[in-house]
Amino acid sequence: MGKHETSTDTQVLQRIQSHEAGWVFTPADFADLGSRDAVATALKRHKAAGTIRLLGRGLYDVPCQHDLLGTLWPSVEQMVDAIARKDGLRLQPIGVYAANLLGLSEQVPAQVVYLTDGATRKVKVGPMEIVFKRTTPRQMAAAGRLSGLLIQGFRSMGVKHVKPKHIESLRSRIPAEERAKVLQDLSLAPAWMHAHLKEIAKP
């Protein structure tokens, strides 16, 4: 192993160790530390040593250990963040998962779906399947904002199932400053959601 490879190996390890257990990453997170081959060699070595785990093609994590449950799978958010960093994607959770993130549903789906401005594809990690669905610019207009999550969460619940208790729960848990921003995206929501979003946005 040459001097440059040794340097890259050390720097890759230092960056890995700078993160807590559970961190999910791709080789792209080390692109500034050396060539693609040098980074790949370093990751292969650290995987063999058990420092990191290969989750899927080009997707790794720092394994998190639980006293009773053993080695845990990383969270969906951590996996999705790593993929979004690598590919420069914008993502919007939809369906039951969006409602779950808002605390409006206790269901934890086995398949999590995100709308994206990137390619349609599936990523399988352990028991979880993450689906990325390419969609229209309008559907992505509120991606990454509270309004986008609310629109998708309410859509998954349906017009007859969004109750005052849900609105009150959101108002009590989300800071007023964040709630007020929802009104900026009112035109992106179906008409039946407008009253709910206005109620959430009240001071």
Q: What's the domain count?
A: 2
Proportion of helical residues: 40-55%
Read across the widest sheet, the strand sequence of neighbours is: 6-7-9-8
Percent of sequence in beta strands: 15-25%
Detail the poorly predicted runs.
none
Number of strands: 9
Instruction: Characterize the largest beta sheet: strand count, sense, and whether it forms a barrel.
Output: 4 strands, mixed
Distance between the termini: 62 Å
Order of helices and strands: HEHEEEEHEHEEEHHHHH
Q: In terms of structural class, how would the helical and strand content be classed?
A: alpha+beta
> Cα-atom Rg, whole angstroms?
20 Å
Shape: elongated
How would you state the average pLDDT, rounded?
93
The quaternary organization reads as: single chain
Number of helices: 9
Present the secondary structure layout.
Blueprint: H1 3-17, E1 24-25, H2 36-48, E2 53-56, E3 59-61, E4 64-66, E5 70-72, H3 76-87, E6 91-93, H4 95-101, E7 111-116, E8 121-125, E9 128-134, H5 137-140, H6 146-157, H7 164-173, H8 176-180, H9 194-201
Parallel strand pairs: 7-9
Antiparallel strand pairs: 1-3, 2-3, 4-5, 6-7, 8-9
Helix pairs in contact: 1-2, 4-6, 7-9
